Amino acid sequence: MTKIIGITGLAGAGKDSFASQLQRALTINGFESRIDSFADPIRKISQRMGLEPYDRERKEVKHAMGPDDFNDRLYEAIEAVLAERLEDNDRALLYAYTVEACDRFIIDRDATYPTMHISPREFMQVLGTEGGQRIRKGLWVDSALMRWRSMPGYTLVADCRFEYEIRQIDHLFVVVRPGVVRVNEHASEDLPDRLTKGLRPAFVQLDKLHYIENDGGLSDLATLASDAAVLI
Q: Which InterPro entries match (predicted)?
């Protein structure tokens, strides 16, 4: 059964870079490992909608589209990505809750052609929380765990952001980088922000918590990852 290694931190701290270096270190040590994500289906839905989820700068850029166009894209993307992962009722609720929560991004509401202005990051935050977690707290996590539990070696998860997620993992690494500050006030940033500040909630076991001070270059991060591989 796979060991699940969670990685958290603020946007821009270097979570993905650390995950890549940790995977490399584990491979060198002879262990099978993979990088995956609780938010993998969320990113795939965003990408199918034309909201680029993988480029750090483009994730923050607002996109303009008509509400009807947005709703059509959302329905098609949910069906394409989640038809084999979620039951019909869950998909219908996910669509309805997400549409309802994204209503706040509509501007010029009384115009003939109102427009929705939303960035990929904003959309994914809404889909993940106001959409998915409103159905049930562990919607995305439970779906991922079903895939991971039968796998060997290590699964590195670079998007741990909520209590329910962290309760499922074997070790948690908090990546901290000087000068990186919180991007926005969305709930998905609350726990990474607290951990970055050194505030440990009671549900995070001390012996499973590790800090990575990402204050150098890639070679320095590789050294930290090599040390981390020994801990897990």
A: DNMP_kinase_N, P-loop_NTPase
